[in-house]
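Hello forum,

I keep getting stuck at the same step: I have a sequence, I want structure tokens, and every attempt I make locally crashes halfway through. Rather than fight my setup again tonight, could one of you with a working pipeline run this one for me? It's a single chain of 131 residues.
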Amino acid sequence: MNPDIENYNSTQTDEEAAVCHTLYQLINKGLPEAESKIWHRHPVWFLDGNPIVGYSKLKGGIRLLFWSGRSFNEPNLQPEGTFKAAEARYTNAEQINQQDLKRWLEKARDIQWDYKNIVKRKGVLEPLRGL
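Reply #2:
Ran it on my machine without issues. Output:
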């Protein structure tokens, strides 16, 4: 268990903490090889230094973000930002569809855009794998 992420989860309201705890367990199970840490004040999982998935508290609940999620072609993930990210939002843990999340995590491993080097490439996002 990552104590920094556990601390982040424990600072949320009861409902939000339940969502965070469930996401934490499922992400760790689905991406056991990933490095997890608090990055920009939020829990994020990385493969080879590339951010893959993370979650954060927003005003209306918890946002689950996949950095390459738009390339997954999943109807339950909504576009986020100007690059290739997509998200799902939850207000309680019962809303988390474990089969969807498992599939998204598999796609997150196989389909990646290179966010690790986006600054070096001056904002140009290059495909890394699966594209």
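The domain at 3-129 is CATH 3.90.1150.200 (Aspartate Aminotransferase, domain 1). If your local run keeps crashing, start a new thread with the error log.
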